[in-house]
Design brief:
With 593 residues, the protein is of the alpha+beta class. It has 19 helices and 24 strands.
């Protein structure tokens, strides 16, 4: 008897548009507006021409006065360009009360849905409802045009996966009365939101329409292509950041908050932008992670070196940096710095107050791509240090002989983690993890309850593998860590892998995933699997050329489960935890149980 197989169309990048209302006329209009009018279309490859990017990766959106466009704290997947009107940016954390922002919580399964998983899960692996794929194409395709993905105006799309929560229809009816912080106005011709979109980080401000406005929204895949192929766009965006956002960045940084607007502007004017390493840092990491540690260290670009004069205060704007110190004939890692942290302040403050000057005590190296701001030492001494009360300044550095100048445990990450554990976390880039699965192998009995619980919560398909890198009795399992910098999102051509806007979990839209394996190949930790999907009868789904159709699959941190990660709840020996590696107090407490 011949084998019966189901055949479906293999999904393509632009099967589903970002906005199915974008057409050729809308693209012509965008291309008539600077800086888009200055783009050289010949610099784009035939596979992704400029017009197709604008047609498929952008959306023209209208906002009424007071309507919220983006919200502080939400994870951004797109940037905006103001075509007409103006927007108001709120400055300062929680400048608008959260109750007025209309946040939607990600939907959790109710009690019956949770319990019914035990008998409603399919008996075959990786079963999919093919009708969902057909409905997606039928509902969004633009005639005969090849095109992609409307982002719905809700926090969940029709296929049950999280998207960026669109705050459409939420208004601030009495804006001056509800604002608790300062504001800034952006007018037509400016970009905003590009840093959160490209850096895969939370929005740092709430932005709403100051008048009836029209904006071009660009999902980050399209923005990445524009920055890569059109230097006019990159230069335009970077210039605008210096002009409109740098002062706010400094204002939100410790030690700068008491500067007057005039002083802040003077500091901003003398601040330098510097970048180190590559944006796609995971490529070099995967290539070099098995090489000698000394060779790996040499491959990390030096931002500032131990023994040099502290000629500027370094603020980490994006990425990670390794803090290391000379030890015998090599170096050992003391800590790491991430977005929002600074380097060199202790040395600068010491030299300002003491006749006995000190040089930098650590070397700062880029772990992949790092974007920094450098405030010259003279500027810090003139404007920043005089504003800080003596009791708030760091203690003077005790000078020691070089042979005694070893890393003190008090200067390790939070002062509580062993040096070898810090090295382990940094060398393997686990510092990137917001929900890293750590297993205490001395408590683990290999009962597999965690794997079974994961399978029961995901249609009988476990979404992690209980093995991974080990240090002593601790193991970091191969489970998605929902990274601070999820590089798996960088190459996704359809935006199928994205952050949940509210919780920041990295999730996959199974419907728009085209099975290209880009995310699986990009993940530095091998935490994404490509699976062959089946229909309800358990038969493999094939494309027109009779090749198996694959989809990306990984841990979604049980986003829809009311009690959170099933793996943690199922462990009978408290051997497993999902931890934010940057929360070193919690991490140290778990290690020292």
């Amino acid at each position: 008897m011949a084998e019966i197989t189901a055949t479906i169309s293999r999904p393509q990048r632009w099967d589903v548009p970002f906005d199915d209302k974008m057409d050729a006329d809308a693209v012509d209009r965008v291309l008539s507006i600077p800086p888009f009018s200055r783009i050289d279309a010949s610099q784009f490859p035939k596979s992704t021409p400029l017009r197709d990017i604008l047609l498929n990766d952008t959306s023209l959106r209208s906002f009424r006065k007071g309507e919220i466009i983006v919200r502080e704290g939400d994870y951004g997947n797109s940037a905006f360009f103001i075509i007409r009107g103006s927007v108001k940016v709120t400055l300062g954390k929680d400048a608008i009360p959260a109750a007025l922002l209309g946040r939607r919580e990600s939907r959790k399964k109710n009690f019956f849905e949770t319990v019914s998983q035990l008998w409603r899960n399919p008996p075959f692996p990786e079963v999919r409802d093919t009708a969902r794929y057909q409905a997606a194409r039928a509902g969004t395709r633009r005639g005969d045009t090849t095109s992609p993905l409307p982002v719905p105006a809700t926090s969940r799309n029709p296929f049950g996966r999280a998207t960026e929560a669109k705050p459409a229809g939420i208004f601030l009816s009495d804006v001056p009365a509800v604002l608790k912080g300062g504001t800034a106005t952006l007018s037509a011709g400016l970009f905003f939101g590009e840093i959160a979109a490209l850096g895969r980080t939370p929005r740092t401000a709430t932005i709403f329409a100051d008048e009836a406005s029209e904006l071009l929204e660009i999902r980050w895949q399209g923005l990445r292509e524009l920055r890569l192929r059109a230097p006019e766009i990159k230069k335009f965006v970077d210039t605008n950041y210096r002009k409109y956002s740098l002062e706010n960045h400094l204002r939100e940084t410790e030690y700068f908050k008491d500067l007057s607007p005039e002083e802040l502007k003077l500091v901003a004017d003398q601040t330098r932008f510097e970048t180190y390493g590559g944006f796609d840092w995971h490529t070099d990491y995967k290539k070099n992670r098995d090489t000698n540690p000394i060779e790996r260290l040499r491959g990390e670009p030096v931002i500032a070196e131990q023994g040099q004069y502290a000629n500027g205060l370094i603020l980490i704007r994006a990425g990670f940096a390794r803090l290391s110190q000379k030890y015998n004939h090599g170096e050992r890692t003391a800590s790491y710095l991430a977005r929002g942290q600074m380097f060199g302040f202790k040395e600068i403050a010491h030299n300002w107050r003491s006749k006995e000057s000190v040089s930098l005590r650590y070397t700062l190296r880029a772990l992949g791509y790092v974007d920094v701001l450098v405030v010259p030492t003279a500027v810090v001494e003139q404007y920043v240090l005089p504003k800080i009360a003596a009791e708030d300044l760091p203690a003077l550095i005790e000078t020691k002989h070089e042979a005694e100048n070893l890393i003190s445990p008090l200067e390790q990450v939070s002062g509580k983690l062993p040096t070898d554990f810090v090295e382990f976390l940094v060398d393997n880039r686990f510092i990137n993890g917001r929900a890293t699965m750590l297993i205490d192998l001395e408590r683990c009995t290999r009962c597999d309850d965690c794997v079974r619980a994961c399978a029961a919560s995901h249609d009988n398909n476990p979404r992690f593998v209980r093995h991974g890198q080990q240090l002593g009795s601790y193991m970091v399992a191969n489970a998605c860590m929902h990274c601070l910098d999820p590089v798996c999102m960088i190459g996704c051509p359809t935006g199928a892998i994205s952050r949940d806007a509210a919780g920041g979990q990295v999730v996959i839209n199974d419907t728009t995933c085209i099975g290209c394996s880009t995310c699986a190949n990009s993940c530095p930790y091998n935490n994404i699997q490509m699976v062959e999907i089946r229909d309800a009868r358990g038969e493999p789904l094939l494309d027109q050329e009779k090749r198996p159709v694959t989809k990306a699959a990984k841990c979604d941190l049980c986003l829809e489960q009311p009690a959170g990660p099933a793996c943690v709840r199922a462990c009978p020996h408290d051997a497993l935890a999902r931890l934010n590696i940057r929360d070193t107090d919690t991490l140290a407490a778990w290690l020292q149980r």
